[in-house]
Amino acid sequence: MAVVGDLRVLLRLRDFRRLLAVRLISQSADGVYQVALATYVVFSPEKQTSPAAIASAMAVLLLPYSLIGPFAGVLLDRWPRRQVFLHGNLLRAVLAALTALLMLGGVPDGLFYVSALCVTAVNRFVLAGLSAALPRVVDADRLVIANSLSPTAGTLAATAGGGLAFVVRLAGPDSDAAVVLLGAALYLCAALASLRMSRGLLGPDPERVRPRLGQTLAGTARGLRAGVGHLARRPAAARALAAITVLRFCYGALTVMVLMLCRYAWTSTESEGLALLGLAVGVSGAGFFVAAVVTPAAVERLGPGRWVAVCAGAAALLEPALALSFEAAPLLVAAFVLGLTTQGAKIATDTVVQSSVDDRFRGRIFSLYDVLFNVAFVGAAAVAALMLPPDGRSVPLVATVALLYAAIASAMARFDVQ
């Protein structure tokens, strides 16, 4: 298979291997930590979960990144990115351990959310930095395949971490803290893995680094305006970001629906619902893997814009066909399809953004990208909270998502962004 050969070529690049190792370990820790939070909020026996409660939790954990994201971008364009990976993962290890202690102490939910918010806040820096650093370890000719394999491998690592968390969580009703401590250990390993790369390897260029924090923060507003202005002059990147934001909204709305179906409609106990949700996550992860295999050839043949259109069009047709029964088996097939199409569109979007924007703006643009992702997911949860009944079955939600997929397919089919 061509993808195997491409992977072998990339893995011969020492610096790519080392950056990939940081991504895999860090995102596996993310998967563990995120599943720990989800199961604590949704599947704890003492909690009566509703769509509104899920939306509230997502808002608490994700919306603040609308403020943090722009700061992250400006700082990523000034701080050595290797140091961001080192110190960011060390900080997350400490904060995750604190979250576990709060779980064991039975503190009010407010304190728990504050701790979790701090962990996932640092995540904004790490994930945006990983995307911004990738062009520093591969050449332009291999950027598409690197964008296909590296972020998708990270997503699969997060899925594997989530699967491991499900296994640990199912071992006993009081194991949420143990899952979080596992995530803390993985964050520590990611920090140690980053030390295998030199401090200046991942950029930005030395003349762009401004180590004095006061000057950096004072220039945040100017830097953000410059980044937005740069994006406005790159219409291909702007269109791709708009499309992936809507696709993320659709994926988020369906995620909340599946959470409620697993919790109340398909199973009679919390453990059964948790196991079924774990299966859905694994099936969606398989879709991510297939997307990594097929996207490079599809982008080469169709162009990234039309490949996004194909992904959205396939989702528009298959999502209502599979989801309107509200049965577990067809919705697991839908999870695979949506994993494939969503990740396929994301790989194409990453490539467009990386190839269209200058290196000195990449940190800012990818941080804005991350903010759009978070706002879209929280917005989707809020809409789902308004539309979903307690058991999760909502024909209007499925129809609305299908129309949004169709709209993106129609819009992106007009463009062949290169």
Quick overview:
81% of the residues lie in helices and 0% in strands.
Question: What is this structure's SSE topology?
Answer:
Layout: H1 2-11, H2 14-42, H3 51-62, H4 65-76, H5 81-105, H6 109-133, H7 143-170, H8 176-194, H9 213-218, H10 220-232, H11 235-265, H12 270-302, H13 304-323, H14 328-356, H15 359-387, H16 395-412
Structural class: mainly alpha
What is the succession of H and E elements?
HHHHHHHHHHHHHHHH
At the third CATH level, what is the topology name?
A: Growth Hormone, Chain: A
**Quick one: biggest sheet?**
none
**Percent in strands:** under 5%
Q: What is the level-2 CATH architecture name?
A: Up-down Bundle
Assigned CATH class: Mainly Alpha
| Rounded average pLDDT | 84
Number of helices: 16
- Uncertain stretches of 5 or more adjacent residues: none
Helix content: over 70%
Structure commentary:
The protein has a single domain, classed as Growth Hormone, Chain: A. Helix content is 81%, strand content 0%. The chain has 16 helices and no strands. The longest helix is centred in the C-terminal third of the chain and has 33 residues, at 270-302.
Please describe the structure with a list of short key phrases separated by commas or semicolons.
418 residues, Growth Hormone, Chain: A
